[in-house]
Amino acid sequence: MSEPPTKILQPRLAAISNPVVASFMAGGVAGAVSRTVVSPLERLKILFQVQSAGRDAYKMSIPKALGKMWREEGFKGFMAGNGTNCIRIVPYSAVQFGSFNFYKPAFADSPGAELNPYQRLICGALAGITSVTFTYPLDIVRTRLSIQSASFKELQAGEVAGPRAKLPGMFALMVTMAKNEGGWTALYRGIIPTVVGVAPYVGLNFMIYGTMSQYFTPEGEHGPSGWSKLAAGAIAGGLAQTCTYPFDVLRRRFQVNTMSGMGYQYKSITDAITTIIKQEGVVGLYKGLTPNLLKVAPSMAASWWTFEFVRDILVEMNPPVEI
């Protein structure tokens, strides 16, 4: 006599509903949804970030820049680099949420206890470092793909023949970078300022979201409503990003540091900061902040809401054990 389907599926459902596994899977879905929604603003932020002093191809308001992108490249311009970004963000977000829940028991005061804000900050920072380490090559390639089709005259005269030229794909670009830019370590260029910026960003994101979720939870309720989760995610993402934004600018600059025509060749993080402030002022460290905040709020709102929605479904999939 064959075993009932529930008994056969139970080990698999139990594995999926494990908090770490469920968070890993839900994090991947959340990352893909959140980044696709804000892809045009994500690309515009990168174009602003990599444009140094004396270059004005995208020195304009956000609506005009988006209009320029649409006129020159159409819908594909809005989505340029998004495929690579999603390929990167799915494992990045999955590892980030999964590793947070993996580290969580080590910092909880007792098994199953909720973390306090400082514990969430530390766990979030560790989760950020873990996710960056695993997915950084995809991030640097995404940055290259995001700017190669843009109408930077300096790039058209250098590495790219023009915005309509056929561009290499993700894996082809990885191989080209490794061959021409000093080996496979080229795929990790800029990882130090990235880790320095991502660790506090992710830590603050988890800490602020947890705090805001408690604030938005009505007395006697188990958790906040769907709209409150969206608001908590938007606030957490906006505040965390503003506090750590200069590190994001440094990350982008180092990722394209070897591309001809960009107007800079930084030797170190200190040299980069000094040069940017000298040539562009302190505001240079915050280039692209406005479009970034415009995309971070809906992005993190969608990310946290999707994550908790999918995670709760997965956690509840485990059927009761038949005795």
Automatic annotation (TrEMBL):
Key words, A-Z: Membrane, Mitochondrion, Mitochondrion inner membrane, Repeat, Transmembrane, Transmembrane helix, Transport
The protein's location, in the record's own words, is:
Mitochondrion inner membrane
Q: What does this protein do?
A: Mitochondrial transporter that mediates uptake of thiamine pyrophosphate (ThPP) into mitochondria.
What is the official name of this protein in its record?
A: Mitochondrial thiamine pyrophosphate carrier 1
Taken from the record, one Pfam family name reads Mito_carr
Q: Which InterPro entries match?
A: MCP, MCP_dom_sf, MCP_transmembrane
Q: Which GO terms describe its cellular component?
A: mitochondrial inner membrane
Protein's organism: Tothia fuscella
Q: What is the topology of this protein in the membrane according to its UniProt annotation?
A: Multi-pass membrane protein
Could you state one GO biological process linked to this protein? Answer: transmembrane transport
Name the protein family: Belongs to the mitochondrial carrier (TC 2.A.29) family.
Annotated SUPFAM superfamilies:
Mitochondrial carrier
